[in-house]
Design a protein that fits this description.
Elements (H helix, E strand, L loop, with lengths): L1 H28 L17 E4 L2 E4 L2 E4 L4 E3 L2 E3 L8 E6 L8 E8 H11 L1 H12 L19
Parallel strand pairs: 6-7
Antiparallel strand pairs: 1-2, 2-3, 3-4, 5-7
């Protein structure tokens, strides 16, 4: 009985030490990897191809041209559609969209925010039905495809 309690205590202490090690690594070591003067690119950005050109998931963002590129396939060419583009995230919307994108909805939202926060703010406030206090240029949607 005494040996079983001793073994359980050792296992418990090992679990506590492992937990403390993980917390220490995530809080201290990861935060100190950024050196002073270093340009910080968010971790979600998987690749930085050139100056102001990024890739998040399947989306390429060109901040110089203020453009995003992502692939998709046309699923409806006739009839009524409810949504132009379906991004992976809401399965029940897939049947109502004309274009199904390979991009995830989360990546699309992050890409809009990376392009310029004013675009994301405009979508957010329009969704909530609130007035927008700032003026933005018109936004264009240009679709191109290969047959």
């Amino acid at each position: 009985m005494k040996k079983e309690i001793k073994n359980l205590l050792i296992i418990f202490l090992l679990l506590v030490m492992g937990t403390i090690s993980v917390i220490y690594y995530n809080l201290y070591i990861q935060n100190n990897k950024i050196k002073k003067g270093e340009t910080v690119v968010p971790e979600i950005i998987q690749e930085r191809a050139e100056e102001n050109i990024y890739r998040i998931g399947n989306i390429v963002i060109d901040k110089n041209k203020e453009e995003m590129y992502f692939t998709g396939r046309v699923t409806k060419i006739k009839g009524w559609i409810q949504f132009l583009i379906y991004a992976d995230g809401y399965k029940w919307l897939e049947e109502e969209a004309a274009i199904i994108s390979d991009a995830r909805l989360k990546d699309l939202q992050l890409s809009l925010a990376l392009l310029d926060w004013k675009y994301w703010d405009e979508f957010y406030y329009m969704k909530r039905g609130e007035e927008i206090d700032f003026e933005t240029d018109e936004m264009e949607l240009l679709l191109s495809w290969k047959e």
